[in-house]
Specification:
It contains ten helices and 14 strands. The protein has 447 residues and is α+β, with helices and mostly antiparallel strands. Strand 1 and strand 2 form a beta hairpin. The two termini are 33 Å apart.
């Protein structure tokens, strides 16, 4: 069940509990009904036993039953209801017993005791029998008589089965009603979890800055902790930006001093030493600029929104004035209603780096497309240039690698674009295709 949703888990557990509880209730009701039916049958048989004893008379041949019980089952052979009287070696029995007798236990009840037995009956049936030993009055010859009335247990079982058949539809309807009520309760009770999901999505999309305080008491601590975490993150970012500024300021003067020393050495004729110092200083500057760019993109990623079409238009307006941009045929397929959760300046820098790279390597056409894909905005920049050799494609996808080491530049463009995407929760992919070299920038949308 690890992959099931919380709502489905609770619904399945609740439905199972409802079914088990109603099944147990049904079994208990069936048992109680059977006990009730048996007690009622015992009461009726005791009444019928009294009727049989009340109908005894002294005939020419001894005891006889002058008045038969009114229940017709006593008169129908194997009718399911039987009476029997044993007195002085003689046995009187109902017509329903036909040529059978009740196999009563050997031990007789004492005095006026009433006993309940289960005995064998005609056609291998099981009977519920009630018996009593009575003392006969003088008009009936005195002495004792053992009287019994028995009922076929199948009738009791049939009554219980009929009760269960009638009970099952009502239990099923009750189970459905209880499960439906439970599902409704879960839908209402778990609604704050959906609100948390929506709020966190809004936080990631830049549409909100805090969880807020309008939450149930059970969820409020979680929302408060998330807000505290966001506050701590913002404080960490502010400190990181401050440290980055301090780093830039602290390294600016030493780098300028190194470059000045290189110029002095070059003026003294030591050109190789000057070139080595400038190379080291440029490497240091590239790393510093790279780290500053990463800090800035991470810091600006929260609560930001940029319009894709507007940013693409700004980037094109700048690049169209460059030599590479002027020679390219720019083609666009960018809807006007797409927004991404990225700072506009960072999006412009990322798109500018990718578009500038495409213009530099394109033969004639640069295409920029944008579309929404599963909550993300996919911006695709394609140039019809020669592309990149497959053995180098993995290398240039790594942060800090340059597409062409022979052309001017510091190699930060692709790295910054990748950092912008990563900081926003997106990704940058580079690959060759039939159209040419393709850069795909996926960024979270803000719908």
């Amino acid at each position: 069940m690890s992959g099931l949703s919380l709502r489905l888990r609770l619904a399945l557990i609740g439905a199972g509990a409802v079914v088990l509880a109603l099944a147990a209730a049904g079994a208990a009701l069936s048992f109680l009904f059977g006990e009730h039916v048996e007690r009622r049958a015992e009461s009726e048989m005791l009444l019928q036993l009294d009727q049989v004893l009340a109908g005894l008379v002294m005939g020419p041949d001894g005891l006889a039953l002058a008045t038969q019980p009114v229940d017709p089952r006593f008169s129908r052979p194997y009718g399911g209801l039987y009476w029997q009287i044993d007195e002085g070696g003689r046995t009187l029995r109902s017509r329903s017993l036909w040529d059978q007798t009740l196999a009563l236990p050997r031990d007789r009840p004492a005095g006026e005791e009433v006993r309940l037995h289960e005995v064998a009956g005609p056609d291998d049936t099981r009977l519920l029998a009630i018996e009593r030993v009575v003392r006969l009055p003088a008009r009936l010859g005195g002495g004792e008589a053992r009287a019994a009335v028995a009922m076929d247990r199948a009738e009791l079982s049939a009554a219980r089965a009929a009760f269960v058949r009638d009970l099952v539809p009502y239990l099923a309807a009750l189970a459905l009603a209880l499960i439906a009520a439970q599902v409704a309760q879960l839908a209402y009770g778990l609604r704050p979890l959906r609100r948390i999901h929506e709020r966190v999505t809004a936080l990631r999309a830049g549409q909100a800055t805090r969880m807020g305080g309008a939450w149930p008491s059970e969820v409020h601590p979680l929302a408060s902790e998330i807000d505290a975490l966001l506050g701590a993150r913002e404080a960490d970012i502010a400190r990181a930006r401050a440290r980055a500024g301090d780093l830039a300021h602290g390294l600016k003067t030493p780098l300028q001093a190194l470059l000045g020393e290189a110029e002095r050495l070059r003026g003294s004729g030591e050109r190789s030493a000057a070139d080595a110092i400038e190379e080291i200083a440029d490497a240091m500057r590239i790393h510093v600029d790279r780290e500053l760019a990463r800090v800035r993109t991470v810091a600006a990623s929260g609560g930001a929104r940029a319009d894709v079409a507007t940013t693409v238009a700004r980037v094109h307006a700048v690049l169209s004035r460059t030599p590479d941009g002027q020679k390219a045929d720019w083609r666009f397929a960018v809807p006007t209603d797409l927004g991404v959760a990225v700072d506009p300046a960072d999006l412009a820098e990322a798109l500018g780096a990718l578009a500038e790279n495409a213009a530099r390597h394109a033969r004639s056409v640069v295409t920029i497309r944008a579309q929404e894909v599963a909550g993300y905005v996919r911006i695709t920049i394609v140039d019809d240039g020669p592309g990149v050799p497959e053995e180098q494609l993995e290398l240039i996808s790594r942060r800090g690698r340059r597409l062409d080491e022979r052309t001017p530049g510091d190699g930060l463009g692709i790295a910054i674009a990748a950092d912008v995407a990563e900081a926003a929760g997106g990704k940058l992919e580079l690959h060759n295709s039939a159209e040419g070299f393709v850069a795909v920038l996926d960024l979270p949308g803000t719908r």
